[in-house]
Amino acid sequence: MLRFDDRVAIITGAGHGLGRSHALLLAERGAKVVVNDLGGALDGTGASEGPAAGVVDLIKQNGGQAVASTDDISTPEGARAVVQAAVDAFGKVDIVVNNAGILRDKSFGKMSVEEFDQVLAVHVRGSYLVSQAAYPLMKAAGYGRVVNTSSPAGLFGNFGQANYSTAKMGLVGLTKTIGIEGARNGIKANAIAPIAWTRMTEALLPAEFEAKFAPERVSALVAYLVHESCEASGEVFTVGGGRVARVFVAEGPGWRTDDLTPEAIAGNWDAVMAEQPYVLTAADSMKAML
Ligand code: NAI
Q1: Who contacts 258 (Cβ-Cβ below 8 Å, separation ≥6)?
Q2: For ligand 1, is residue 144 a contact (CB within 6 Å)?
Q3: Strand partners, 148
Q4: Residue to mutate (ligand 1; options 71, 198, 199; most atoms within 8 A of CB)
Q5: Cα separation of 217 and 25, whole Å?
Q6: CA 100–ligand 1 middle distance (angstroms)
Q7: Are 73 and 124 in contact (CB under 8 A)?
Q8: What are 119-147's pLDDT values in tens digits?
Q9: In which band, very low, low, confident or very high, does the pLDDT at 93 lie, cut at 50, 70 and 90?
Q10: With contact defined as beta carbons under 8 Å apart, do 145 and 96 qualify?
Q11: CB-count burial class (<10 Å; 0-12, 13-18, 19+) for 211
Q12: Pairing of strands 243-247, 32-36
């Protein structure tokens, strides 16, 4: 069994849904957990101490160790406070699961700047801030595990979610770069793109999906990715309903000429669009252009 004894985990947005499930699973397997949740509504408005405190109570009833944080992770002060809560209660941070999220859906033409900015602030800036606040501790320890929460809506696009899909694809870039920079200090970062039955999706998914898409089926992957035995870094996985799959950003073999003109591109469009053999890294992409 993969255990997390002596590991300290911060899980943002852990008062409900997926984060709550991640917190319960890691605590059940021995981790000391900071349960962070602002306790607001799905659109990010409001705040309450109830959700984070409720999950902490449940973990303690089950014999685990946890502390609550109601800090807003989209602000630098809030992100620092979450990390400080882990240090004060448990002395270190081994694991950060950036899970907090909000929705402000609107069709692209009607989306306000505020709706765009608020969604990026929680998902992207929040994940950057909490990871960065924990980073010096992880570097000093020569060990760290970060999981960011992307979405199929970001990887593939989704009607009415220009803000959310921008944020969720942004997290792929953040994950890959933390993975590259963290490698020399034993820090690994991966992203999940889940589907689960939570307050975020219960109005969208058919009722019979509730059990099949239980959040616990996503938490199993999170637990593996934040375990010390996991070698993967910079990867992205879709997960839900009991299925896990690697998602990769790949470049096709491309088509080249020494006289690239708009007309030449138009005339060789099928070769430009070809998918295989594909290229997986920025270095190989550059090499193919030489
Ligand atoms: P949820 O609404 O149950 O959980 C999100 C939690 O984040 C809430 O408890 C909320 O209070 C908290 N939160 C929001 N803003 C915060 C802030 N500034 N600081 C601290 N906490 C904050 O929704 P769910 O479904 O559990 O979502 C978890 C993550 O998974 C989100 O990032 C979401 O975008 C992502 N996701 C969920 C999918 C699903 O099918 N449920 C699909 C794809 C991605």
Answers
A1: none
A2: no
A3: 98, 191
A4: 198
A5: 11
A6: 4
A7: no
A8: 999 999 999 999 999 999 999 999 999 99
A9: very high
A10: yes
A11: exposed
A12: unpaired
How is the chain split into domains, by residue range?
A: 8-247, 250-290
Give the SS3 label for residue 179.
helix
pLDDT at 280: 85
Residue 135 a catalytic site member:
no
Sign of CA dihedral 148, 283, 163, 238: negative
Q: Where are the beta strands (DSSP E) in the chain?
A: 8-11, 32-36, 65-69, 95-98, 144-149, 187-194, 236-240, 243-247
User: 231-278 pLDDT, tens per residue?
Assistant: 999 999 999 999 999 999 999 999 999 999 999 999 999 999 999 988
pLDDT at 57: 98
CATH architecture of 8-247: 3-Layer(aba) Sandwich (3.40)
- The sign of the torsion formed by the CA atoms of 214, 215, 218, 219 equals negative
Are 92 and 76 in contact, with CB atoms under 8 Å apart?
no
Predicted TM-score of the model (pTM): 0.97
